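SECTION: protein entry
WANTED: fold as tokens:
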Amino acid sequence: MSNGWNIEALLQGVASGQVGIEEATERLRSLPFTQAPGLTLDTHRALRLGLPEVVYGRHKTEAQIRAALEGLVVAHGCALATWVSEAHAAGLLSVFPDGVYDPTSRLFQIGRMPVPAVVKTVAVVCAGTSDLSVAEEAARTVEFAGHQALRIHDVGVAGLHRLLARLEDLKAASVIIAVAGMEGALPSVLAGLVRQPVVAVPTSVGYGTNLGGLTALMAMLTSCSTGIGVVNVDNGFGAAMLALRIVQGG
């Protein structure tokens, strides 16, 4: 059930002159949502925040993911789901033939958002190939939003020359997302080399005392370099959303 009747009443108020354009726009920012079985979709999040609601697919059934994607596609013409298993993706592709599933990032995507007037570049840097799934989740989310993702892989600080060789590329980006496990030193090094804001993503990659990413998380939170924002372990999507808020607000 959609609350479209509220929108219709609002539009009638604008047409009659009882509601001004500015008031109507402000009311639309927080008004609409769409309900499906077990779901309430925030279909005007894109109007308020510049970015639409995204489906978190982990622990959801295929039917639940499908219903959410259907509602979002109706509202926006595009949709994105994270943490989608390959088994669920196979079923979703039969329903959404235009959908794209990437097994590395576990993202299921239908279309993309309109390309913004000013396209920004977000560099997505990962320390090692074991971090690729998290890095790709971030990069593909940035691209879904219409911005450009610059991928720089396998430049961990144990071989610092690899990172320094890409320094000019990094300086050209608007924001840098740094993905690392082990001791999580990459964001701290990056933030000491460039003026751009750095979004740090700890991963659950590492030996025993990595503690499932907790060691990298704590290292990033206690970094001696400034200008770092830290998201949760393996949260490439969250890193991309923070980076997108930065570029859209700048």
Remarks:
- The chain is about 40% helix and 20% strand.
- The chain has two domains: 31-110, 121-249.
- The longest strand covers residues 121-126.
- The chain has a mean pLDDT of 88.
